[in-house]
Design a protein that fits this description.
About 40% of the residues lie in helices and about 20% in strands. By secondary structure, the protein is an alpha+beta fold. The strands form three sheets. Strands 1-2-3-5-4 form a five-stranded antiparallel sheet. A five-stranded antiparallel sheet has the order 8-9-12-11-10, with no helix packed on it. The chain has a two-stranded antiparallel sheet with strand order 6-7. The longest helix has about 35 residues, at about 1-35. The radius of gyration is 33 Å and the shape is elongated.
Length: about 400
C-alpha cells in the first residue's frame, strides 16, 4: 500500500511538471511574437518614404452598386421614379445603347420569384451593363405604331409631370432569346424594370385600394388625369405597379403606369363612365348613325358574337362587354374588369379634382406640341393625328367638368 501511494505521488508531480513546461513555452512564444511586431505607436506612424508613396497614389472611389446607372454623366439612382423626369435624356440614352448581358423569358423570372405571370405577347427580362434591369417586349406583326405608344406614353409623362411611366425606348436586340444557342434579331420596346414588393395581381379589391390609400392625394389625382386625357383606359391592378422608396420611418409610395398601349385606341367617352374603344373595323356597320349611340349599347353574348363573326368575318372579344356599331366599326365597353365591377375602370380614370400642376400642364397642351412629342418615337400619320384630337377633346371635357377656363 505504501509503494502504491509513492507511485501515485510521483505520477502527479510529473503531470504538474509537464503542464508548467507547456505554460512556459506559450509565454516564450508570445514574448517572441511581440518583439517582432512594431509597437502601437510605430504602427500608427508612417516613415517619410512610405508617406510620400501613399500621397502619390490616386484616390480610388468605391464602386457604385449595380442599381445605379453608371452611364456617362449619370450619378443618380436610375430606379427612383422622381429621376425619370429629371434625367430623361440620359436614361433613354442608356437604355438605347447599353450592352445586353443577359436575357430570359419574363414568365420564368416571375414564377421563380413566386409572382403572378399574367400577360400576353413575348416579354423578356433583360440585364444591361452596369446591372441595369429592363423589360423587353417584342413588336407584334402589324402593331408597330401601337407598341411605340409605350415610348410616347413615357414622353407624355415627362412633358406633363402627371404620372410615372417607366423610361422606355424602341430598340432592336440581337440575342439568344430562348437560350437554345440560336441568336435572333427582334424589335420592340425596352423599358426600365421596376421590381416591387407588391404583387398586386394577388391582391383582393379591398387590399388593393388600401394600398392605393398610401399614395398622396395629389399624385393619385394626377395619375387619373393622365389616364383619362391620354386614353389609357385599360387600367387596374394588372396595369399598374406600386413602388416604395424613402426611409423605413418615412416611406413614400408611388404609382407606376405600365402597359400604356391602350392610348392607341380611338375612344368615345361619356364623362364618368367606361369608355367605348374601337375594336374591329366593320365596313358599313353603323354608317347611318350620326352621333355615337351611347344609350343604345347592347350586351354581348354568344349569339351576338357569332352574328358579328358571320357578317364581318371577325370575332369580337370573348369577355362579356357592352358594344355598339358606329362609323364602320365595332366599339366595346368593358364592364367586367379585374374583380367584376365597372368601377375598376372608372376609379382610376376620373380624378376627383385637378391639381395645380394638372391645370398648368393641360392648359399648355396643343396639337402642335403633342405631335412633336409623338414624332420622337412615331411617324405622324392620320392614325396619330386622330389620337391627338382625342387627347384634346378629353382635356376639354375635364376643363368643362371642373369649370376651368
Amino acid at each position: 500500500m505504501k509503494l502504491k501511494r509513492i507511485l501515485k505521488k510521483e505520477a502527479k508531480l510529473k503531470r504538474i511538471k509537464r503542464f508548467s513546461a507547456l505554460i512556459f513555452l506559450l509565454v516564450f512564444i508570445i514574448i517572441i511574437l511581440r518583439s517582432l511586431l512594431p509597437s502601437r505607436h510605430k504602427r500608427n506612424k508612417l516613415d517619410e518614404p512610405t508617406k510620400e508613396i501613399e500621397e502619390t497614389l490616386p484616390v480610388i472611389e468605391p464602386e457604385l452598386p449595380t442599381t445605379v446607372d453608371t452611364h456617362e454623366n449619370s450619378n443618380y439612382d436610375i430606379y427612383l421614379s422622381e429621376n425619370w423626369h429629371k434625367h430623361s435624356g440620359e436614361i433613354k440614352k442608356t437604355l438605347s445603347e447599353a450592352k445586353v448581358l443577359d436575357i430570359e423569358p419574363m414568365k420564368d423570372f416571375l414564377l421563380r420569384n413566386k409572382k403572378q405571370a399574367i400577360f400576353s405577347g413575348s416579354v423578356f427580362k433583360v440585364t444591361l451593363e452596369g446591372g441595369i434591369q429592363a423589360v423587353f417586349k417584342t413588336t407584334s406583326d402589324g402593331k408597330m405604331v401601337r407598341d411605340r405608344m409605350e415610348e410616347t406614353a413615357y414622353d407624355f409623362s415627362v412633358y406633363t409631370n402627371l404620372a410615372y411611366v417607366p423610361p422606355t425606348v424602341h430598340r432592336t436586340l440581337e440575342c439568344d432569346f430562348n437560350k437554345n444557342g440560336h441568336v435572333q434579331k427582334k424589335s420592340g420596346f425596352l423599358s426600365l424594370f421596376v421590381d416591387t414588393e407588391f404583387d398586386l395581381l394577388k391582391y383582393t379589391k379591398e387590399k388593393f385600394y388600401a394600398l392605393l390609400s398610401k399614395i398622396s392625394e395629389d399624385e393619385l389625382c394626377n395619375y387619373k388625369t393622365f389616364n383619362f386625357v391620354f386614353g389609357n383606359w385599360d387600367v387596374g391592378p394588372h396595369n399598374v405597379l406600386v413602388a416604395k422608396d424613402g426611409t423605413k420611418e418615412n416611406p413614400h409610395y408611388h404609382l407606376i403606369a405600365i402597359d400604356n398601349e391602350g392610348m392607341a385606341n380611338l375612344q368615345k367617352v361619356q364623362y364618368g363612365k367606361v369608355p367605348f374603344v374601337r375594336w374591329l373595323t366593320c365596313p358599313g356597320a353603323g354608317r347611318n348613325v350620326r352621333d355615337f349611340p351611347f344609350d343604345q349599347a347592347k350586351t354581348s353574348d354568344k349569339a351576338s358574337r357569332q352574328a358579328i363573326a358571320n357578317r364581318f368575318n371577325q370575332w369580337p372579344p370573348g369577355r362579356k362587354h357592352n358594344y355598339s356599331l358606329f362609323g364602320g366599326a365595332y366599339w366595346t365597353q368593358y364592364t367586367d374588369f379585374w374583380w367584376g365591377a365597372e368601377s375598376n375602370t372608372t376609379d382610376l380614370l376620373y380624378p376627383e379634382r385637378l391639381t395645380e400642376t394638372a391645370k398648368e400642364k393641360l392648359k399648355n397642351l396643343t396639337k402642335e406640341n403633342l405631335l412633336a412629342l409623338i414624332a420622337q418615337s412615331n411617324d405622324i400619320t392620320d392614325f396619330m393625328k386622330a389620337r391627338v384630337d382625342g387627347f384634346i377633346e378629353r382635356r376639354d371635357m375635364l376643363f368643362k367638368h371642373f369649370s376651368i377656363t
